Amino acid sequence: MREFELISRYFKGRGITRKDVKLGIGDDAAVMTVPENCQLVVTTDTLVEGVHFFKDMPARALGHRALAVNLSDLAAMGAEPAWISLALTLPHADIEWLEEFTAGMHEIAEYFNVQIVGGDTTQGPLTITICAKGTIPTGKAITRSGAKNGDWIYLSGPLGDAGLAIEAQKGRFNVRPEHLAKLKQRFEYPSPRVAAGQVLRNLASSCIDISDGLLADLKHILTMSMVGATLNVDKIPTSESLRASLTQEERWPFVLAYGDDYELLFTVPEDKKGMLDLSLRQYGVEAVCIGQIRGNEGTIELLNKGEKFVFTGQGYQHFAEE
């Protein structure tokens, strides 16, 4: 199968068609209309085989995950996703793999009303790059730089599942099949908190999604906002599968430093706390308060049931070991 046949078969004319797409797949570039009084929000993410996913990862899951991690970035900004472009590098045109990969991508795109408007296909090591675009009312974007002393720190859901799924697949932990299935589901089919992100536009002072680990991502907020934080590690939510599979000591690295969970980490001023639970609950999100903004810039004080807690692990960083 040649490049243009591949594009025509798996992308052109498939999925939803948005009215704001004036020119989609087929030309040198796409043309979209940004709604009045809105700003464009753009994010780009690359997934490389052997770095971000296992070689035997199901193609359908990979299609879902590749798009989900980009939608999670838009969610962290409070944006409404609208359009994506895809750069797909393939070793060869495997028809069965492409059927499953594109099915997974189209499913989540349709769920979030996102149209694939263009991209590129090339031959080489399996690499997936997605550029996701969304819109947000002018001046409403949630950034990493808005946290203030006294704000409360929240998580949108449990941490650690994706990390344990990865380490179990590497053979480093033995996990019972019924728990492993749930952990793998969290890694392979992450759920971007798109609706929650839009709710947080009027509530959160800062926000980020958990991709590199809780401490590493919290550090980004603290650095950009020039504040510190106290974190109650015993308050961090975890799943039943994680708790059943690991001792408390074994759980800390996954909960605090592993990443790949794509939950939202955000801060809320005192006067907005009362509105938070009611606003998010209608979307099935049970936000948990895990700490407070206070202290010197970039510092994180860890407490476990009120006692000082020491943890030296670090979040993931590309090129850190070179």
From TrEMBL:
Domain (PurM-like N-terminal) ranges: 26-135
Enzyme Commission number: 2.7.4.16
Binding, Mg(2+) 2: D45, D73
Binding site for substrate: H52, D260, Y316
UniProt binding sites for Mg(2+) 3: D28, D73, D209
One biological process term in Gene Ontology: thiamine biosynthetic process
CDD domains membership: ThiL
Metabolic or biological pathway: Cofactor biosynthesis; thiamine diphosphate biosynthesis; thiamine diphosphate from thiamine phosphate: step 1/1
InterPro entries tied to this protein: PurM-like_C_dom, PurM-like_C_sf, PurM-like_N, PurM-like_N_sf, ThiL-like
Binding-site positions, Mg(2+) 4: D28, T43, D73
Gene3D superfamilies: PurM-like C-terminal domain, PurM-like, N-terminal domain
Positions annotated to bind ATP: G119, D120, R144, S211
GO terms, molecular function: ATP binding; magnesium ion binding; thiamine-phosphate kinase activity
Catalytic activity: thiamine phosphate + ATP = thiamine diphosphate + ADP
Miscellaneous comment text of the record: Reaction mechanism of ThiL seems to utilize a direct, inline transfer of the gamma-phosphate of ATP to TMP rather than a phosphorylated enzyme intermediate.
Cited NCBIfam families: thiL (TIGR01379)
Protein name: Thiamine-monophosphate kinase
